[in-house]
Amino acid sequence: MIKTANRIANVEEYYFSRKLAEVRTLDTPELRVINLGIGSPDQAPSSPVIDALIASAKNPAHHGYQSYKGIPAFRKAIADFYANTYNVALNTETDILPLMGSKEGIMHIAMAFLNDGEEVLIPNPGYPTYSSVANLVGAKLRPYNLREDLNWGIDIDALKKSDLSKVKLMWVNFPHMPTGRTASREELKELVDLARKHQFLIVNDNPYSLILNDSPMSILSIEGAEEVALELNSLSKSHNMAGWRLGWVAGKKEYIDAVLKVKSNMDSGMFLGLQDAATEALKNGEEWFTALNKVYAERKAVGKKLLDLLGCTYAEKQSGLFVWAKAPAHVTDVEKWIDEILYGTKVFITPGFIFGEAGRRYIRISLCCTVESLNEALTRIQKHLEAKHTEQIVVK
Ligand SMILES: Cc1ncc(COP(=O)(O)O)c(C=O)c1O
């Protein structure tokens, strides 16, 4: 048996990679699993996107390696999207690097900026990949709590009082997953100022800005951000293209060049058909987002009913593809409770502990599921709770 590298000793296989395999074993034609777990949009991209992919794939000249920096048309479409959506001017040539989804960018940025033992500020709760990647590159994790009493905001005063001298990188993610919290311009400005003062890189991971959110914002629109900030963005959620693996990182040339140094040694560019399709997707206008958000708002209303039935509490206003909710006080072990629901109803809900210690009392439901399925989940859970109630009476 060959011993694996030390760097993977503190990293586990991604939770969903393990758990969804278990969930799939429960799926039968008689009773299908209802997956309220991951944020993988179940609707199709706009039809011009599919047409662009097909047309591009039919061209025999489109199947070779592509530029490491993406085609100019895709980068131009990203720059236009940033100008129109966030009022941010990006240089098409120097400030944008297309990625195969924003997730890979988390690794590339960590590899480009973090030395062994340097500290990384990571939101707790937060997207688990930030911690795994920090472990993989040998950096030191510095989780910072998002506080429920601040409506899941960052306690910036506490951060300011702490020793930030060894911090090299701070991950922020607004609109935040899993809590759905957005940040105000003032909060982002304070964070950018902190990064400038202590000379660390601040990276906003921004894939949810156009989902159930009235004021999409980019960290790059904050004064002074260009000196210290990068932003990851993605077509996965807002354009229903999660499986296509299309995203990008934006920021100033020197930082983008550093990320390219890593990335260009790892892959050999992105299939031209995907880039043509992405260029088309970025033309989706207001009508697209209005229709998309109408669907998610309808689903959210049913999702909230389901959470009410479970006795959970939640903030009314949450952006993004999920509803984050606190489990009722009588539940002592939320992970066990979620498994009990899964095995009793075949409805899968994400337990909050996977997002960090601060998520232990919480659950997250995804809106990537039809209203019909959500209603079916509601019915199953209702029956399950009634059966449990009857069981308890009989035992007494
Ligand atoms: C906060 C956050 N960042 C990044 C990602 C990855 O997105 P992509 O599909 O662009 O890699 C996700 C996906 O769930 C996410 O929730």
From TrEMBL:
Q: Which cofactor does this sequence's record say it needs?
A: pyridoxal 5'-phosphate
Recorded GO molecular functions are: pyridoxal phosphate binding; transaminase activity
Name the family. Answer: Belongs to the class-I pyridoxal-phosphate-dependent aminotransferase family.
Q: What are the Aminotransferase class I/classII large domain coordinates in residue numbering?
A: 33-381
Q: Does the keyword Transferase apply?
A: yes
**Which keywords label this protein?**
Aminotransferase, Transferase
Q: What is this protein called?
A: Aminotransferase
Could you say which enzyme class this protein belongs to?
A: transferase
Query: A Pfam family this protein belongs to?
Result: Aminotran_1_2
Organism (species): Pseudochryseolinea flava
